[in-house]
Structure formats: structure tokens, C-alpha cells
Amino acid sequence: MRKHYLHLALVFVLSLFVGQSFAQTAGNIYLGHCKYDDYIYEYDGLSLDHDSKVGVGIKLTRDMFEDYIGGKISAFRCGWDDAASSATYDCFVRVGNFNGETIATGRGAVKFGWNEVRVTQNITIPDVDTLCVGFYVNVKKNVCSIPKFYPTNVANSCFLFNDETTEDGKEIWYDSRSMGVMPIMLKISDTSGQFQDMLVCHGVKYDEIVPTSTQNIGVYDLENKGSNNITSLHITSKIGDQVRTDEIKMTAPITPGMRKNFKLPVYCFETGVHEITFDKVNGKAPKKVATTKAEVIGVPAEVSKQYTHRPLIEFFMSENAYHVPQYFDLYFMAGYEAFMDKMTLVCQHADDKYMIGDPEEALLLQLGLVNQDSMSVFLPDMTINRSLYGSNPVPGLNYPIHMGILYPSEIQVAYYNDILKHPTFASVNVKANLDAKGENVNITVNGNVADNVLPEGEHLYLTVYLMENEVESYDQRFWDDKEGEQVGNRYVHYNIIRENLTPLWGKKLSNASGDFTMNFTAEVYDDYNKENLSVIAFLNRGDQNPHLKRQVINSKEAFVGTDNTGIGSVVTDESKQPAVYYDLMGRRVLNPTQGGVYIKNGQKVLVK
Asked: Is the pLDDT higher at 358 or at 139?
């Protein structure tokens, strides 16, 4: 089956690692723009339409090499991308700029892959603000020979073409912002142990809403920039006058040059920004302490007991994407069906006739969830509470992603159960009824937000959707091996957003805490099935927060004509609850005509 990407950009973007250190063995440290183990692909490098001598270089700013001042420069690490040829690199280290004083040189043959060129002088890294590291090489016409890594738009990577010079004879080096990044790294030796126990923390992922006074698990991005193994860490967490320490013995060492994610404690005292420091490495205070921060919402146990957490699942689909609704039936529903009375489901439609908003709100929502990275937008996909996105899963739980959705059902069940354990601190209820003429739906949404839980000055936002369940369509695309993608055949959509009664990210509550009530009116059009209308309301943090901190706090769903009734729960008038059938494979069936056992509204039934 094919993955359908919703392309919003023409350039594929990868991450670069700037100023990292890499090493194969203790005592050697690498500096540069590129990862030591970045792949080198044949014929993916620099190619010119004429023979030329080319200069390639990198500016190292002081923050990239300051920790290694005084270290011995022992070699250069260079890449070559053409398996059919070899070349000679003339390498250099210069002070200040590319026309500055040369303090180290090296010359050596290179071939396909990574190569090491030894320096000819025994030189140390000086105490300066800028170093320039580079090489010269003869490039043959129409031969891709120097690896080029994407993306572009990375400063301090420079090129020199055809020995181009100024009037006074100085070389003209061009920034490579439009040409990608050429790999070269500087290798440093640790001869006296001065570069030991050098830990860097690049950040941590964690659950943003957790119980107070608890130790939770975060995923720390740690790098060993030193020359020895790291086997133990001492972590101190602090907010205000509250302090906690944890001693961690690594089950496997962080070897020199390694950058990897590690699951370590994130402690929550209360709502606020917790400062986290690695104040001991291998039992000793390091020269430079690694630090990071965790901004959490802490929910006291006595508060969370007052509320029931009902997560919001958003499943992104499009009729214009081959078989996307079938993924909903075959893969998503297989695990979700047992949770219908505990969770709220919204099917967000992108790029088809069921999309809402202008421009399309589902697409804007997806972009907001991935920090405006258009290449992370694809269909089908799902989110839970708008922050637990497929590319940013909950720390501590490993699960496979299939076509952007949780798969298989056994994994979904474990994941959903974990989400239901998360605390909440607000409630939302819905009352929705048709007016006497049946022309409008009158909606009242009320609820409560606990005191002293939200960060100071922050308010929640209310979003309200008018929904219709079991909408029949003949526009779904299918695949025929002989004729390709075809439109046709009936598909019954689980629920469609008919109208968003609030802005995309919700309407701001007037008070930060306490009771709230809002009223809405939605027009009923002729093509709506009044018997299948429902209202979904949920509270979320606003989009003034970073994209992973816009969580849905709680949600509610009720059929039009009922009072505070969650879909999937027991209702007194069953005629007002549409029959939703699934076979035992988890596939939705509009009206079962063959005898057998089916799931109807969460209960097994026998159809004769």
C-alpha cells in the first residue's frame, strides 16, 4: 500500500548537526558541521561543467571549539563521493578568516567514503574567536566528487571556485547557503585527559501534564563530547527552593562522540519551569555543567480526582488520497472500538469536499502540530490531545507507526490505556437541542477549570464542532491494477465536521479558573441528517504556546437532543443513537446483511 504525502514544499529538508564532536576511540574528538557517520552517496556531490580547482571550507565559531582550546590538532576528516576516481586533498586550518594565518596543513590522497589526512605540524588550538578549516581539490568535469549534504541555508560553509581572487590577490570564498554543506572535520587528540567527562544535553522530551510530586520519564538528548566513557550521572532538579537529586548508573556507557536519546527522570514539584542540571559526570563535577529545562503543568492528586479525563483523537484523512478511509476502518478502528465510550473522535478532512475553513483548517491544524514543517504533513495520520503526535510520541512508550497511525491494535490498546491515566484539571459538558422548527441547533457548553494549576496568566480555549455521523459518499478513490486510481464505490464516513463554531484554536475563556458557560447556534441545512447530528466540545491550550504545548485538556461529545451524554455510553432512548456496526475484524459495516456476530455501539450482537 502506498503512503500518500501531502506535499507543501519542493525541497526535502533533513537535520544538520552543527558544531558536534565525534570520535571512534577515546582520546580523539571531531569538530565540524557534519555527523561523522553521515552516509556518503555516490553521485550526490559537487559537479561542474568544467575542470576546476575548488576550495571547500567551514568557519568554526568560538562556541564550537572553545572547550578544546589547547588540544592537539592531529588530523582532518574528509569525504569523497566518487567510487570511480580518487583525488588529493590539501587541507588547512587558518585563524580569523579564509585569508588569515595558516597554522596547520595536511596533504593526502582520498577515495570514496571517509578519509583521514594527517597534519604536518604539531599544533594546538589557539585561544581565538574564529578558525577556518578547509581543503583544496581538483574536480573533474561532470563528476560528482565531493559529498554534498542537505539542507542548504547553513551558515559558515564556504566555497572557492577557479582560484577566484580580489584585485589585491586575496581568495574570494562564498557562503554555501544555496549549495548544501560539504563535509570536513577537525580531529583533536587528548594527550593529558583535559577533555574528559564532557557531557552536553541538547534538550529533553517529556509529558507536559503530570501529577505533582512524581518522578516521570523524559527522553534526554545527550552527547559525549569528551574522550572517555560516561558511566554515571548525577541529576539535580530545581524549581524555586525545591530541590531533588537522582543518581543514575548507566546500563551501557555513553562512549566518546556518541549522541543518543536516554530515558531518565523528570521530576515534577508543581506547575512551572524546572531547571535540570547534570552536576556530576562519572562522580565528578565537570568543567562545564550540562543543563536543560522542563516546563510542566503539575496536577495535584486531590484535583485530578475531581475530573474524568476524556482524550481527543483526531484522525486526518482525505477522499482524494487512495484508500485513506480504509486505513481508518482496517487499522485505526481495530484498536479504537473498545474505547469509543472513553475518548472523543474527530475525523479531520484535508483536501476534499468535507474540509472546513478557508484556507483548509485541517491542514493549518496539522502544520501547527508539527511546528510549520510542511514535510511532516501526510495522510492518513492521527494525533491524541494535539500534542502526542506520531513524530513526537509519549516518552517511555515505544510503539510502531503504520501510515501515521498506531498499529497494530494490541499496541493501540496499550497506548490508549496509558493516555487515559494522564491527569486533567478541567471539565467540559455539552447540551444540544434542535429548535422547534428544526432549523437550528442550540448549544450550551459549560464546565470548570481548577484553581492554581495553569501557568500564571494563561487561559484555556474552547473549541466546538457540529458533527454528523455516518455520512455516505461515492467519491472515495480506489486502486485498479489495470486502470490506476479510480473514483467510485460507496464509503460511509464515521463523522464529518459540519461547522466549526469557534476559531480554529478555540475561543478564550474569560476566566483562568472556575466555572464557565458559552452558548452557540448552528444552522441545520437540508443535506444534514438530523438524526445523526452531534456536538463535540473540548478545552485546549492556545496556539500562543509552542506546538508541543497546545494540549487538549478535556473533551465531551453529545448527540443533538441529549443532555451531557457521551457517545458510546448507555442512553435511555436508543433510537437517538445511530447504529454503528463493525465486524470482528474491526471493519465498519453500514447495514449488515450477512448473518454473524458484529459489534454494535460497543456491544456484541448476533445478526441472523
From this structure: 139
459 pLDDT above the threshold of 90: yes
Assess whether the region 207-299 and the region 312-577 belong to the same CATH fold: yes
Topology classification of domain 312-577: Immunoglobulin-like (2.60.40)
Question: Rounded distance, CA 318 to CA 300, Å?
Answer: 41
Where does 305-346 have alpha helices with state H? 324-327, 333-336
Residue 538 binned pLDDT confidence (cut-offs 50, 70, 90):
very high
Tell me how far apart the alpha carbons of residues 185 and 281 are, in angstroms, rounded to a whole number: 26
What is the spatial distance between Cα 516 and Cα 164, in angstroms, rounded to a whole number?
70
Q: Where are the domains of the chain?
A: 28-189, 207-299, 312-577, 578-608
- DSSP-derived letter for residue 71 is P
| In contact, 536 and 556? CB cutoff 8 Å | yes
**Residue-level pLDDT at 449:** 98
pLDDT score for 128? 96
For 162-178, how does the pLDDT look when each residue is reduced to its tens digit (9 = 90+)?
778 899 999 999 887 76
**CATH class in words for 207-299:** mainly beta
Q: In whole angstroms, what is the distance from residue 523 CA to residue 439 CA?
A: 6
CA angle at residue 183 from 29 to 167, to 5 degrees? 115
Do 331 and 401 touch, CB atoms closer than 8 A?
A: no
Which string of b and e fits 324-356 if b means at least 16 CB within 10 Å? bbbbbbbbbbbbbbbbbebbbbbbbbbbbebbb
Quick one: pLDDT at residue 14? Answer: 21
Residues 284-337: tens digit of each pLDDT:
999 999 999 999 999 999 999 999 999 999 999 988 887 888 888 888 888 898
Report which of 434, 442, 448, 316 is spatially closest to residue 386, judged by C-alpha positions.
316
CA distance 305 to 212: 13
> Which residue is listed with cell 435511555?
572
- In the 8-state DSSP scheme, what is residue 67? G
Residue type, 311: P
d(CA 283, CA 582): 58
How far apart are alpha carbons 376 and 492 in whole angstroms? Answer: 28
Neighbouring CB atoms inside 10 A of 194's CB total 15
Rounded Cα gap, residues 64 and 129, in angstroms: 10
The distance in angstroms from the start CA to the end CA of the chain is 34
